[in-house]
Design brief:
Radius of gyration: 19 Å
Structural class: mainly alpha
Mean pLDDT: 85
Order of helices and strands: HHHHHHHH
Strand content: under 5%
Distance between the termini: 10 Å
Number of helices: 8
Largest sheet: none
Amino acid sequence: MLDNNRMTLKWINIGIICGFLVSVIYPLIQFISNLLLGVILAASMGILLSLASVGLYYFIQIHKNSITSKIALCSNILAGLLLTQMFLVQLAIKSSKPEILDESDKWVWTTINHIHYGLDVAWDVYIFLGTILFAISIFQHPRLGKIFSVTGILISLVMIITNVITFPIPPSIDLMDFGPFIGLWYLGITIKIILSRKWIHLQIG
């Protein structure tokens, strides 16, 4: 039992660290011009997201053994995989695109762009499912509760609706992209977990 509690605490700590790293790298990667650095950051994003989600899962499990949070964890791990694919495909396309396109080339690059647009939506589908299920599972959590729960549900629903409406073009072009708000929601969760360390130790000893 003691070993299990120690393992739970280690996973929560890993989740906190990875959660903060994701919150820093996700906006930063949009402005990186160096290809090698971009690849390194892109390759790390999915792993960090997955590990952060494991930490959140264990934090939720301290209060209640929830099937909903298990499904959410699986969905977020798949979202991390798709996020890495999306970023790497975007970087590969960007690195090979000529600066000047003639008319005969434009349709080719339009088609190629739709590949990473599709990956973008696929990642959004899984992060939507993971986020909304995590949000549902924390509704009665003593340290997260109804505000985080309802906020997560609403942001997830608006995000996926805007993605469906604008498909295959990302909503950032025609509508507001709510993806960053999901990132802020997870950052808020991470901070709340840090502020709950006393509660964690009381629960697991």
